[in-house]
Design a protein that fits this description.
By secondary structure, this protein is α/β, with parallel strands linked by helices. It is 53% helix and 11% strand. A 7-stranded parallel β-sheet has the order 9-10-8-11-12-7-13, sandwiched between helices. Strands 1, 2, 3, 4, 5 and 6 form a 6-stranded antiparallel β-sheet that branches. A 5-stranded parallel β-sheet has the order 16-20-19-17-18. Helix 37 links the parallel strand 11 and strand 12. It is elongated.
Length: 1080
């Protein structure tokens, strides 16, 4: 057991036992309840207040706070007399139209009485019957009197379920990974999260996608300012969890956040995979939903659906190539088309010179005309060398060209190359090799080369013949062969003896037949004769050692140029010496010339004149030349011709390297984009169908285990089958009941749990309904998702954290901090988002979608979000934006502003008959009531109806968090009094969290925000607190029309997309907002 967790549990216990002095469960004054149901429906002040509070709490928390109580115990706390209700029955349903109320049959003792007994050290009293229980309580001495009365009041006892959560958690022996992570427990070892499959069901911007991807790596935090699509992220995340066969627990402090999320899932038919445990829903209602879903899965036999992978986007290649070329050129593609004209068919070689032209066009304009005229003649050396060296080289070029012209008649580069070549030949032919074999080189080249090849061939044949003649100790000559033949045929005894001695002398193996050896000997002798003849011929040229120099002579003759040799042989000795002496200077001049000038230079005299005319300007432009790419120098003499050439090279480059641009450049690409948008929509539908199919497959797998032949099952499967059969039987029985159902917690703790996990992979609830409905089981769910976590006290979330293995904590730290159901310590309440931010990786959602006019979010973006929110362009509309209504005659008298209320009521009268959703907010309850009284009776009824159907809200500033509307009307109310004095006693705006209250208020509107006030920023005093200073900044913003008129460029937004899917998302949003640029 973790000591750190235990420390946190102790701190949470203190928070959950801290009680507010005015808590009606502790002290129920006579002014806070009515005695009967009939009294509740009267128009008395108490009845109206109770009914209004019932509506508010039900709207905000999904809980019917109304309770029927029986009996009041009186006791003393210091000098104050307190009366505490005893026996409670919760309201199950209430209908304000029919004035009908239903209460739960089963009641319970006020949970605070048990807390009081615990705090005072009194013994716990078991409830048997009310009379005995009351007497036992009076016997403790804590209570002085009991009044037997009944009544109806807003006691909201459901919140005390959180105390039971803490008690249950305190009994646990181990804690979830999520709980360890949230408190930063260093003892926890987390296993790496396996990669999960993705299945997107709706558009996602880059931040939203990154937030979902991060969840694949483990627990995380998502910062979602107003209107940034947090519910879109969470709905996609839930779909992905179902797709990966995981279970999720979704928790929020207020039901409205989960209703929004369910609405997103319903768009993809994934709400049927979820169960929302609403506090006002009865157990019977849950079983009806369970039966509906169970029957659907049993009967669900959908048609074969196509779940193939997404096809490539039609416009992706065009977009990617366009982005690539625009990044390279920093120009829009349409601007490139303006430069290079429409597509053209060309066979030109593709180059990148057109890019150099675009990026250096300004440099070209800086060059003097005379410089542009000589640039095609110059080498890059001119831009790489310093000015001093350029001058020295140009002087040397002039000297050497003059010298060679005078002494050798060299007038151009061709003659220069010839002179260098001839002088080099002279030096070569004067070498020892050529002089040694000069007589041979004077002969016909082909004939002598043929003879050398013949001699090489004879040498090779001789080596081969010698191999066949190895039987001879020495190869006989022709004369010796005659003697041996004669000796071999002699018949005398003495001659035969002599022959045997000869055999031993000449042959390695005696007894061989000489006739068989004669053929090879004749070939050998013939080879010797031919070689001797060839040696004799080469000896005439002074070559006595032909065998030794053969390898030298063959390559010499092969590369020999007879023409050059004959030219050389015809030169006089003086001419040869002169050429040899000239070579070094001619070669150096040749190198210098090629270093300075291109091959376009022909005549040295013309070049000398042209360069001298342009050298001054060229010298001035050398710094520009250092930056101007050499590839552009060539065509600068004729700019028009160069531009035409670059145009053909541009389209040739597109044809080769950007084929999609080349193909689509002459036709609109919007058709491809629209087709890709439709393809995305279709793919998301298929993904949602695939997610539903995963759930069906899991359900069918359980069913299959029940129907498979038992002999095919292993022992584990047999045991699982038995549990599944029991679990299904339990569910079937419970769904048939009309009352006295097993609780959901009992289902989870029994054999029905596997069925519940598959039938409802996603469970949504508030902390109180979670505590009441689900068992305290470690890591009961794979993932816990906490929405609006900045409004959720950490102590209220501990039960959900224990039930989850990993968590996603989503919220906005600039929203209102949470209010505990119980008392608040001096240190305040720590919210879950604040805690998680220090221990979990986070992602920020920056793209703001709610405001249809950028001015609606401008103030909050600047003052609360450091201008990090990315705001979308919108279609201009005179009806959208922020509107300042200054009621000069308004005065703040008796805590209300009647004139301001009347003007707002007139505007509200017109809006009530329109289809737009409406919000009305006042900075105080009194001003809100003043607005209500300013409406006529018909408008009051219409407003109440629209509030009931959730197309309008009518709230004080304190209670507006979580609401959203198209048109928002705000009454500031506070103004100068009759003495023309403006006081900074501004109610909630002068308290802690005033800035957050203002941020919440100003981010509720989608289309228009109308702010009614009777003061100006100049009415605020110079000395202001931090709380009121932010309000003053709002008035400054409100009065500054130019500041409010913020515009965003749609083209820039599209151009900022880093990937094609992101571009499609941007395109879709701009299209929906009717803000697409005329040309995409």
């Amino acid at each position: 057991m973790s000591g750190l967790v235990q420390e946190f549990l102790l701190s949470w216990e203190a928070e959950l036992l801290q009680l507010r002095a005015n808590d009606p469960l502790i002290d129920l004054p006579t002014s806070a309840f009515v005695a009967t149901e009939a009294a509740l429906w009267t128009d008395s002040t108490i009845s109206l207040q109770i009914r209004r509070e019932v509506r508010r709490i039900e709207r905000e928390r999904g809980v019917i706070a109304l309770v029927h109580f029986e009996g009041l115990l009186t006791w003393q706390k210091g000098d104050k007399s307190i009366q505490t209700p005893v026996f409670l029955r919760e309201c199950s349903t209430i209908n304000h139209q029919t004035q009908k109320i239903d209460f739960e049959e089963k009641g319970f003792v006020n949970p605070y009485i048990g807390v009081l007994l615990q705090k005072t050290g009194a013994a716990d009293i078991e409830f048997t019957d009310l009379t005995t229980y009351i007497q036992d309580l009076l016997d403790t001495g804590l209570f002085t009197h009991y009044e037997a009365c009944t009544g109806l009041a807003n006691l909201h006892p459901q919140r005390y379920e959180l105390r039971k959560e803490w008690e249950a958690l305190n009994k646990e022996n181990s804690y979830s990974a999520a709980l360890h992570q949230i408190i930063g427990d260093p003892l926890l070892h987390l296993e790496p999260v396996s990669t999960w499959k993705k299945s997107q069901i709706s558009p996602l911007d880059p931040d939203q996608q990154a937030a979902i991807d991060q969840m694949g790596e483990g627990s995380s935090v998502i910062y979602g300012p107003p209107g940034t699509g947090k519910s879109v992220v969470l709905s996609n995340l839930i779909g992905q969890l179902i797709f990966n066969q995981q279970n999720a627990l979704v928790v929020a402090d207020k039901p409205v956040a989960m209703q929004v999320l369910l609405g997103k899932l319903a768009q993809h038919q994934l709400d049927q995979c979820c169960v929302f445990l609403n506090a006002s829903q009865t157990t019977t209602g849950f079983y009806k939903q369970l039966q509906t879903q169970f029957e659907r899965l049993l009967q669900d036999n959908p048609k074969s659906e196509d779940f193939e992978l997404q096809q490539p986007f039609l416009g992706a290649a065009f977009w990617e190539q366009r982005r690539q070329i625009e990044l390279q050129t920093t120009l829009n593609f349409s601007e490139l088309l303006q430069v290079f004209g429409p597509p053209t068919q060309t066979s030109a070689k593709p180059t990148k010179r057109w890019q150099l032209w675009l990026s250096n066009e300004n440099l070209l304009e800086q060059l003097m005309p005379s410089t542009r005229a000589v640039l095609p003649l110059l080498q890059p050396y001119w831009q790489k060398t310093n000015t001093l060296k350029i001058h020295q080289d140009w002087d040397n070029w002039q000297k050497w060209s003059s010298y060679l012209l005078q002494n050798h008649g060299v007038q151009n580069s061709s003659q220069l190359d010839q002179l260098v070549d001839q002088s080099l030949r002279c030096i070569q032919f004067e070498g020892n090799l050529y002089q040694t074999y000069s007589e041979l080189l004077d002969q016909e080249q082909a004939l002598q080369l043929k003879r050398l090849y013949q001699y090489q061939q004879l040498c090779t044949q001789e080596e081969q013949l010698l191999l066949t003649l190895q039987v001879w100790k020495q190869v006989p000559t022709l004369g010796e062969w005659a003697i041996l033949q004669a000796a071999a045929v002699a018949t005398g005894w003495l001659d035969k003896r002599k022959w045997r001695k000869l055999q031993k002398t000449w042959l390695r193996l005696p007894g061989l037949d000489l006739k068989q050896l004669e053929t090879q000997l004749k070939k050998y002798w013939q080879n010797q004769v031919k070689r001797a003849n060839l040696k004799e011929k080469f000896a005439r040229f002074g070559i006595q050692n032909l065998d030794e120099v053969l390898g030298l002579l063959v390559p010499l003759l092969k590369q020999h140029n007879p023409t050059q040799w004959q030219w050389y042989r015809q030169l006089s000795r003086a001419e040869i010496q002169q050429l040899c002496q000239t070579h070094q200077s001619a070669h150096q001049f040749q190198q210098l010339h090629h270093q300075l000038f291109t091959s376009k230079v022909i005549d040295f005299s013309t070049l000398n004149h042209t360069m001298n005319m342009a050298f001054s300007a060229l010298n001035t432009d050398l710094q520009v030349l250092e930056e101007l790419p050499f590839e552009l120098w060539e065509g600068l003499t004729d700019i028009i011709a160069l531009q035409q050439t670059l145009r053909t090279e541009f389209w040739a480059d597109l044809r080769l390297n950007y084929p999609a641009l080349y193909t689509c450049s002459s036709q609109p690409v919007t058709g491809l984009i629209e087709a890709d948008l439709q393809q995305e929509e279709l793919q998301w539908q298929k993904n949602a169908a695939a997610i539903r199919a995963v759930q069906r497959a899991q359900f069918k797998q359980l069913q299959k285990l029940l129907t498979d032949p038992i002999q095919k099952l292993n022992n584990d499967q047999k045991e699982q089958r038995q549990q599944l059969r029991k679990g299904k039987a339990v569910l079937v029985k419970e769904m048939a009941k009309t009352r006295q159902h097993l609780s959901i917690a009992q289902l989870f703790e029994g054999p029905a749990a596997p069925w519940l996990r598959v039938i409802f992979p996603v469970w949504l609830c508030t902390p109180t309904t979670l505590a009441k409905s689900l068992p305290m089981q470690r890591e009961l769910f794979d993932v816990g998702i906490f929405d609006e976590a900045s409004q959720l006290p950490l102590s209220h979330a501990i039960g959900a954290l224990q039930r989850a293995a990993t968590v996603v904590v989503a919220g906005d730290p600039q929203q209102m901090r949470p209010q505990s159901y119980f008392g608040q310590s001096a240190e305040g309440v720590v919210d879950l988002l604040h805690q998680a931010a220090f221990y979990l990786p986070s992602k920020h959602l920056r793209y703001h979608y709610r405001s249809e006019d950028p001015s609606l979010i401008a103030f909050s973006n600047r003052h609360f979000y450091n201008n990090l929110l990315i705001v979308w362009p919108s279609k201009d509309s005179a009806h959208n934006g922020v509107f300042d209504h200054y009621i000069e005659a308004g005065r703040y008298i008796q805590q209300q502003n009647n004139e301001e209320a009347k003007v707002l009521a007139q505007h509200l009268h017109a809006l009530l008959h329109l289809s737009q959703t409406i919000g009305v907010v006042a900075f105080s309850e009194t001003q809100l009531n003043c607005i209500y009284q300013a409406l006529n009776s018909t408008d009051q009824v219409l407003l109440d109806e629209r509030i009931q159907e959730r197309s309008a809200f009518f709230l004080p500033l304190e209670k507006v968090q979580g609401e959203e509307c198209e048109v928002l009307l705000i009454s500031f109310g506070f103004a100068k009094n009759d003495a023309e004095q403006f006081s900074l006693k501004l109610g909630p705006m002068a308290q802690a969290q005033s800035g957050r209250r203002l941020n919440v208020l100003l981010t509720r509107a989608q289309k228009a925000l109308h702010f009614y006030s009777s003061i100006r920023s100049s009415d605020f005093p110079m000395k202001r607190s931090a709380a009121t200073n932010r309000l003053w900044e709002w008035f400054v913003f409100l009065e500054n029309t130019e500041v409010r008129q913020i515009t965003y460029d749609a083209k820039e937004r599209l151009a900022s997309a880093q990937t094609y899917p992101t571009f499609l998302n941007y395109y879709r949003v701009l299209k929906q907002r009717e803000a697409l640029p005329s040309r995409v």
